[in-house]
Amino acid sequence: MADVIHPNPIGQIATGVLIGALISIVLFYFFSGAGFFITTLMFLWGIITILSAYAFLVTRFITLEVSERELIYKRGIFSLDRIHVPFRKITGLFMRQTLIERIFSLGTLEIDTAGGPFSEVAINSMPYEALKKIVRKIESETRKDEGPDDSGPEPIARPKKSKHSHTMYR
Fold it and tell me: Is the N or C terminus of the chain more exposed, i.e. has fewer CB atoms within 10 Å?
């Protein structure tokens, strides 16, 4: 049974609203004419509404499936990109949060594999608790795969010295 997780668009929407509000304040400060301000404000909030709807739709078409042995990252509306990352190929997991993501309890997950210098999968605005659950699952599965034989070389047993040992060869 695979868990399917979608990003939450609230982070992008909140960022757009914040930037729009800042631009509105700056425009009001420099151009305090009432007609210009109202027109500009309506234009900015129209753009913010369109960008928010776009963020919402795009996040509905991004999924991260966590199965027993791999992550499957899917994205795309018209063409679908699908990336399979087996747990055993993962070399690094990185979780981070921007200020907006921290406010809304979201986070970004980056997954590195041995295949190149860049992250194989980087997905932002994911629910932070779900990210922690994914990381715990990957860590537990990779520990299972390692087993006791992969822990490193066995220590060499040194022979016990007796009281009568000499340095000369016999």
Answer: C
What type of residue is 40? T
Q: What total of structural domains would you count in the chain?
A: 1
Closest alpha carbon to 101 in 136, 131, 74: 131
Instruction: Look up the CATH number of the domain holding residue 60.
Output: 2.30.29.30
56 is in which domain, residue-wise? 3-146
167 lies in some domain: no
- Reading the chain (170 residues) residue by residue, the pLDDT tens digits are 567 887 888 877 887 778 777 877 777 777 666 666 677 777 777 888 888 888 888 888 888 888 888 888 898 888 889 988 888 888 888 899 988 889 889 999 888 887 777 777 888 888 999 889 888 888 888 777 665 555 555 555 555 555 555 544 44
**Domain membership flag for residue 40:** yes
Cα angle 96-91-2, degrees, rounded to a multiple of 5: 75
Domain annotation covers residue 119 = yes
